[in-house]
Amino acid sequence: MARVSSLLVNGVARKVDADSQSSLLSVLREQLDLTGTKYGCGEGQCGACTVLIDGVPRRSCLTPLGDGDGKSITTIEGLAKDGHLHPVQEAFLAEEAMQCAYCTSGMIMSAVGLLRTDANPTQSKIKDALEGNICRCGTHPRIIAAVQRAARTMKGGTP
Amino acid sequence: MNEHASVPLSIEPERYEFREARAYVFELTRRDLFKFLGAGALVLCATPKATALQESGREQHRNESLPKEIGAWLHIGEDGKVTVFTGKVEVGQNIRTSLTQAVAEELHVPVAQIEMIMGDTLLTPFDMGTFGSRTTPTMNLQLRKVSATACDLLKDIAAKIWNVEVNRLVAANGKITDPASKSSATYGELLKGREFAQLIPDQDPLLPPTDWKIAGKPLAKVDGRDFVTGAHKFPSDQKRPGMLYGKVVRASKFQAKLTSADSSVAEKMPGVVVVRDGEFIGVAAPSEELATRAAAAIKTEWDAEPQPSSKTVFDYLRKNPEARENKTALPPQNSPAKIGGGSQQHSATYTVAYIAHTPLEPRAALAEWDADKLTVWTGTQRPFGVREELASAFHIPQENVHVLMPDTGSGYGGKHTGETAIEAARLARAAKKPVKVIWTRKEEFTWAYFRPAGVIDIRAAVGSDGKLEFWEFTNFNSGGSGLNSPYAIEVRTEKFQPTKYPLRQGSYRGLAATANHFARESFMDELAHQAKIDPLEFRLKNLKDDRLRAVFEAAAKKFGWPAAKKSSGQGFGIAGGVEKGGYVATCAEVAVDKSTGSVRVVRVVTAFECGAIVNPDGLRNQVEGSNIMGLGGALFETIEFEDGRILNAAFSKYRVPRFKDVPAIETVLVDRKDIPSAGAGETPIVGVAPAIGNAIFDATSVRLRSLPMVPDGLKLS
Description:
The complex is a heterodimer of chains A (159) and B (717). With 159 residues, chain A is α+β, with helices and mostly antiparallel strands. In chain A, 36% of the residues lie in helices and 16% in strands. The longest helix of chain A has 15 residues, at 140-154. The termini of chain A are far apart. Chain B has three domains: 30-222, Aldehyde oxidase/xanthine dehydrogenase, molybdopterin binding domain (Aldehyde Oxidoreductase, domain 4); 235-304 and 363-438, Aldehyde oxidase/xanthine dehydrogenase, molybdopterin binding domain (Aldehyde Oxidoreductase, domain 4); 313-354 and 450-707, 2-Layer Sandwich (Aldehyde Oxidoreductase, domain 4). Chain B has a seven-stranded mixed sheet with strand order 11-12-9-18-15-16-17, with helices on both faces. A five-stranded mixed sheet of chain B has the order 4-3-2-1-8, with helices on both faces. A five-stranded mixed sheet of chain B has the order 21-20-19-14-28. The termini of chain B are far apart. The chains are: A alpha+beta (159), B alpha/beta (717).
């Protein structure tokens, strides 16, 4: 079986040692201690494990490690730069868009992925992009407001 | 604060797995605490029970020991850092923030200077658990009292040092100041090299809510940054050196007995530890993947009796009453013979399905042994209960068990128990290494407990004047919370009939109040339509409770009740009730596509009143969250089971609310500063299902009497 020995995560080449068929999620959490990416269902239904692979949101629980080999992987831990939060992170704080916050990492990663391709999403586009992310606490309206706020600030507008 | 308005502890111990707490034995002495915390001031709050024992002289405290009944304590260090200790836990209801706010207000310190230690069985006072919306009415008050006392203590110290009258001193921003002499000192400076300890009773005067400055206003989640950066370590994220991952081999069906097991293949896997102890079979391995493979390699056979299915469950509940005493029923008052000639009688049966809590973080625990001492990090609403479960499972004293509860990925009443803690501890003992067990989603859907299913029979009569004359209400199995109608009815019989039940069942957000309100408030709508009276008017006509009237009127006003229909599939519904000291009224608008049967909730307006508001933003979040969570149980959530197996144990088969299901939600908060705060995590959920059901009836003339109402869309015949 093919092994994967290195992974480019959050801009840094990291040593790993796992079968290429192992889930990306398990390697991020167990070998790289990047536990901000969460397990929620293991069937790609809840979005808690969302990471960006070459900028595109992917469910790491269903992604074989081999699919991440040679690509650039971004997790929630890699969003802030030099101590400055990403605008989407700032917006989640400003809108208080979390309760238990277990879904928050996945929500933020899905939102970052959306805003990369659509800088000015309508509310309906935001719902489409986040439909695969489950929040059980019912924070949905605030999450939508946070994504809208992030879109405004990323365009250089006022929050 | 008014004592008379305090809310009685309304839990259902006989139904919901709560057990009486044993007398608590402290491991820590006062000396230990100072040794641990350093010099400074320590203030402890005794519960009323402890105060009574002390005053009656039945319980004497030696100088060095702490009383058994302590609600909370607080320490201010030489560096001015405030550390607060409470047995309550954070599962997303945001009490880490609201309790911090209470301390900041009474102690006059910046929020950033306060650290909350929560749900740690070694460091925090005993607490029965975080449930029943009890944190705000109890812990919030205790911490206010402790903080106010600490503030007075600091003023006393400053007054002695400066040799001035204490009442001219002012506390603000972590400092005591004498405005006359301009002397000023931080709390840390006042406490340098000193040790003060004070035990206070639970009934000291406090700032009235009208004088609150920080509390009563929004405050952002105190550790929000840790969550948006992924830095926070949830229970499932915990790690220890040399840690293994555990998996338990599950029975083929509920209540099955193990007849044979062959673990020879798993035992040969490198690094795998197999544990067989009675009915328990599990493995521990260096990775979750290997543990999963090893568990799957163990061949087991099980023997089980035939069991009922979700299709036959309501019949089963009705036919299997238990002879236990029914504690929640009111005694029958008067006799139904009084019903007048002009009355209309009506009866109906409602049902609610089993549903799952599905907290997004499944149950998780990490256990580590040091000789015969056990430490467990786990997500639970009852860390002290889990400590007791562990002590009893392993035949060790409770003092040997330390349970820590990192802020957890929600519970909703679903995490009162310590299954993963026991599993991880059993595996860790065999492996002689720390072991972490995280349940899969399928395990969470199968081996956790459920919100009980129930059958509710109602019979009532309405007089020609539109007043309720007679009311008979029987709930089979789902529970007694919210059983009693808030309406003025002269002749009434309301009872909760316990039954045998086919699935493991327990608490859920709002307990049975959701089922009882669904049945009652839908039936009230039926009666209103039968009597040809507007549903809001019919309720107000039969309602004497001013607080409930006020929320009905507030919701109706915001919603624009009665609303005129603009299209044929449009419908409006209203419902409300009282539970756990909170008053709620909900209006819903639905859009039904009569050709496809699809039902969409378009708009929900909720008016909520729970006394004085502590954190309006947090409260709004709880009300919105309750509405969205309630939407799932109202429309489509249902556990399907057959013969001891769950048939839909996955998010792909069990539908929970998602973004596109979420309606426009408007919340009206009614702030009653003259009434002590009640909790708010549960009650706002109770009006959602009946308001939606009543709106569907308004749109289609179809009365839906089963939760969930439209798991497969609306069937219009």
